[in-house]
Design a protein that fits this description.
Elements: H1 5-19, E1 26-32, E2 38-44, E3 47-49, E4 52-58, H2 62-69, E5 72-79, E6 84-94, H3 97-106, H4 109-117, H5 127-141, E7 152-166, E8 174-181, E9 184-190
Helix pairs in contact: 4-5
């Protein structure tokens, strides 16, 4: 196995893409309020390289507000068919507006409209109100291009800790932890 945890993640992700029937991009994202109260939800991973792990969301959502107040987060992937879990902890930065624009332009048109229509994490009076907002934006933008909403964009989790869990019989699992040290990584093994 590779000693570079990002390369190892990419290898395991590629293996999961071949074997899994679930969306391998689905990842649990844990954030905390400034006073340490945690919350977790699933997002979709849109990139993982030496710069970090990228996902996109509404900055005015609960997760966006928590990340603005406390820019530390954790990700947890689980691929049951290959019996591998990957956990990533680190600090959050926003990706550039240009990168967010570029990704937003690749989204399905209805998903672009949905980003405008949803006031994510705020109270919704009725489903009809959301459907009405969606139709209003469909009319507003017509057949033309849909710009990225100013409150919507990408986040990059720059890892300081990456752990791989490999399921084994008798609960004697393998756990490999990589800890950031300067520009490199230190690997340790943990008891299961």
């Amino acid at each position: 196995m590779t000693e570079d945890p990002i390369a190892r993640f990419q290898e395991e992700f590629a293996r999961a893409e071949i074997k899994e029937t679930i969306d391998v991009n689905a990842v649990a994202l844990a954030t905390c309020t400034p006073d340490g109260k945690p919350s977790v939800r699933y997002v979709l991973l849109k990139g993982a390289d030496q710069d970090g792990f990228v996902f996109y969301t509404n900055a005015e959502s609960r997760k966006g507000r928590e990340l603005a107040a406390n820019p530390h987060a954790a990700l947890a992937f689980f691929w049951p068919t290959i019996y591998v879990q990957a956990r990533v902890e680190g600090t959050i930065t926003k990706v550039s507006a240009e990168e967010s624009d570029e990704y937003f332009a690749t989204r399905a048109r209805d998903s672009q409209l949905g980003a405008w229509a949803s006031q994510q994490s705020r109270l919704l009076s009725s489903r009809e109100a959301l459907d009405h907002a969606f139709e209003d934006y469909r009319v507003r933008f017509g057949d033309g291009p849909i710009p990225r909403p100013p409150y919507w964009g990408g986040y990059c989790l720059k890892p300081t800790r990456i752990e791989f869990w490999y399921g084994k019989p008798n609960r004697l699992h393998d756990r490999h932890v990589f800890l950031r040290e300067g520009s490199g990584w230190r690997e340790e093994r943990l008891y299961p």
